[in-house]
Amino acid sequence: MLQLVYVSTAAKAFSDAKLQSILIEARDLNWAWDVTGVLLHHDGRFIQALEGPAEAVHDTFSRIQRDSRHHGIVTLYVDEIDQRDFPDWRMGYVAIDPDSARQVDGFMDLAAQQHAEDSSRAHELLREFSLALT
């Protein structure tokens, strides 16, 4: 299995209704491809973790990279995994506010930092949010 974490920027602002529509579509596709993960969103910026069979994760990420609704996609972390961090989440979603995000161990300013050396911090941030939501 593979886990991949990336950040991106929305091409234009998403309404809550549009985000919900995208999430429903993503969950259906992820169910079919056996992909799990989580999506964090704040102020037009996204950080997402995808995990599952390597081919399915790569295919999902390729589809994301072709999606014109966002740009500036930067891969932060790719690694083989023995078990999923988000086994029950076909696509968990968290809209984060900056004050609560800064309270989380491993906080990472998505607007200021988009570098591969931040990969472990991105991974820990996602893990902290998943633990907080369970």
Task: Give structural notes.
This protein has 134 residues and is α+β, with helices and mostly antiparallel strands. The chain contains four helices and five strands, in the order E-H-E-E-H-E-E-H-H. The chain has helices spanning 16-33, 54-66, 98-101, 119-133; strands at 2-10, 36-42, 45-52, 70-80, 92-95. A five-stranded mixed sheet has the order 4-1-3-2-5, sandwiched between helices. The longest helix is centred in the N-terminal third of the chain and has 18 residues, at 16-33. The protein is globular. Mean pLDDT is 75; it is low at 101-117.
Question: Strands, helices and their partners?
Answer:
Blueprint: E1 2-10, H1 16-33, E2 36-42, E3 45-52, H2 54-66, E4 70-80, E5 92-95, H3 98-101, H4 119-133
Parallel strand pairs: 2-5
Antiparallel strand pairs: 1-3, 1-4, 2-3
Return the structural class. alpha+beta
Order of helices and strands: EHEEHEEHH
What is the rounded Rg?
A: 14 Å
Number of strands: 5
Largest sheet, if any? 5 strands, mixed
Q: Going across the major beta sheet, what is the strand order?
A: 4-1-3-2-5
**Head-to-tail CA distance between termini:** 23 Å
Shape: globular
Poorly predicted regions:
101-117
Query: What is the arithmetic mean of pLDDT?
Result: 75
Question: Can you give the helix content as a percent range?
Answer: 25-40%
| Proportion of residues in β-strands | 25-35%
Tally of separate helices: 4
